[in-house]
Automatic annotation (TrEMBL):
It comes from Nocardioides agariphilus. It is found in: Cytoplasm. SUPFAM superfamilies: PLP-dependent transferases (SSF53383). GO terms for cellular component: cytoplasm. Belongs to the class-III pyridoxal-phosphate-dependent aminotransferase family. HemL subfamily. Its EC number is 5.4.3.8. It holds the Pfam family Aminotran_3. Keywords: Cytoplasm, Isomerase, Porphyrin biosynthesis, Pyridoxal phosphate. One of its GO terms (biological process) is protoporphyrinogen IX biosynthetic process. This is Glutamate-1-semialdehyde 2,1-aminomutase. PANTHER family: GLUTAMATE-1-SEMIALDEHYDE 2,1-AMINOMUTASE, GLUTAMATE-1-SEMIALDEHYDE 2,1-AMINOMUTASE 1, CHLOROPLASTIC-RELATED. Its main location: cytoplasm.
């Protein structure tokens, strides 16, 4: 049992004195589950060690970024070699070219531009879509998160195809006045929005398979429908693969639908895995659309550390190591944990559904299949909190919210998987209590 938290508690108190909520990204504060977030001192493979010396199997993997686990020796060596040559020059470098070539090889994009976070990637993709089409309206789906871009921090308006309201104080109504928020997986609502506003819609942006309301797969053909509808109306289809890219499968979520169905997004966004644990993200797409970006075209976009040699080297090393065997291992681990979690919860009589998109998965504490945010919101978050803490006490670090995907890596060996399986029955019993 991991019951020593003295140092994490002391650090949390110091952190709260100097940082809002004591954290630099809200979900880390454990507000959704209560208790003290563990301050992590180191990571190795599938394991985290906190400042009190407790060890945890990590099922967060830096929110999906660490496909190969913590401190992978070859990625570390590549980063160390890059750092020894300097960290940033503000000039073009070879690693940027190599990483761009690798992404173009592995995805349907023709050209790619690097940025430093997924938020910048989606923000820039939307600006480019607006600049390319000369239109202003953006369609997004409730429950899909695309980073903290003002116009995308939007809550659905009050009626069918009405414009959105700010999702947080600090976002002016004018920033969301051109955003339409629709229910996910609902073709009729998409058709209605295009019927009413089609000639004003610049783009539809969607998570390729949502992972930010828990994992919700697109219904068969949904992404294809979005792509076709956009094309029919002269809008662009932006597939946000910041989370799913190089993770849901070798070819991301697109490898699970677009590749076999024969469609391509006009623009895509990437982050997480492609940065190998350092801040790197990207947006890319059709050559004629990307040609509108400065300095080739008129749509402005830039970044001091964009494509910096250390982050691009980490990303390149990661993608080069991300072979079919890596994805086979991750699939197997995901499947084993998914199945065991479902079994433990069934045996404890806890209502739940386990959902997945390729190697990404999550457990909803509700008894009906979740196809959209309304259904995701119906889950029993108190049951999740009890489950979460029982897992944490037994040395398994889950994402501290019921609305997050669980992530595994190729470093999750049999010992790490067994530690998760051992913890599940007691955690399921805690959720039932
Ligand atoms: N898009 C998706 C699908 C994400 O999951 C995230 C982050 O979780 C983002 C965009 C934003 O990325 P970042 O946190 O790097 O700004």
């Amino acid at each position: 049992m991991t019951d020593r938290t003295t140092r994490s508690e002391a650090l949390f108190e110091r952190a709260r004195a100097v940082t809002p909520g004591g954290v630099n990204s809200p979900v880390r504060a454990f507000n959704a589950v209560g208790g003290t977030p563990r301050f992590i001192a180191s990571g190795q493979g599938a394991w985290l060690t906190d400042v009190d010396g407790n060890r945890y199997v990590d099922l967060v993997c830096s929110w999906g970024a660490l496909l190969l686990g913590h401190a992978h020796p070859e990625v570390q060596a590549a980063i160390a070699a890059a750092v020894s040559r300097g960290t940033s020059y503000g000039t073009p470098t070879e690693p940027e070219v190599e990483l761009a070539e690798e992404i173009v090889r592995r995805t349907p994009v023709d050209k790619v531009r690097f940025v430093s976070s997924g938020t910048e990637a989606t923000m820039s993709a939307i600006r480019l879509a607006r600049g390319f089409t000369g239109r202003d309206v953006v369609v997004k789906f409730a429950g899909c998160y695309h980073g903290h871009v003002d116009s995308l921090l939007a809550a659905a308006g009050s009626g069918l195809a009405t414009f959105a309201l700010p999702g947080t104080p600090g976002v002016p109504a004018s920033s969301t006045a051109l955003t339409l928020v629709l229910p996910y997986n609902d073709r009729e609502e998409v058709a209605a929005a295009f019927a009413e506003h089609g000639d004003r819609i610049a783009c539809v942006i969607t998570e390729a398979a949502p992972g930010n309301m828990g994992v919700v797969s697109p219904l068969p053909g949904f992404n294809a429908y979005l792509a076709e509808t956009c094309t029919a109306h002269g809008a662009l289809f932006i597939s946000d693969e910041v989370m799913t890219g190089f993770r849901a499968s070798r070819l991301g979520q697109w490898g699970l639908d677009g590749a076999s169905e024969g469609w391509k997004p006009d623009l895509m966004t990437f982050g997480k895995v492609m940065g190998g644990g350092l801040p790197a993200a990207a947006f890319g797409g059709r050559a004629d659309v990307m040609a509108h970006l400065a300095p080739e075209g008129p749509v402005y976009q830039a970044g001091t550390l964009s494509g910096n040699p250390v982050a691009t080297t980490a990303g390149l090393a990661t993608l080069k190591l991300a072979t079919d065997e890596v994805y086979d291992r991750i699939s197997l681990v995901a499947e084993t944990i998914r199945t065991a979690a479902g079994k433990a919860l069934t045996e404890a009589g806890v209502p739940h559904v386990v959902q997945s998109a390729g190697t990404m998965f999550s457990v909803f504490f509700t008894d009906e299949q979740v196809l959209d945010f309304a259904a995701a919101s119906s889950q029993d978050t108190a049951a999740f909190a009890a489950f979460f803490h029982a897992m944490l006490d037994r040395g398994v670090h889950l994402p501290p919210s019921a609305y997050e995907a669980w992530f595994v890596s190729s470093a999750h060996d049999d010992r790490a998987v067994q530690a998760v399986l051992d913890a599940l029955p007691a955690a399921a019993a805690a959720a039932a209590a």
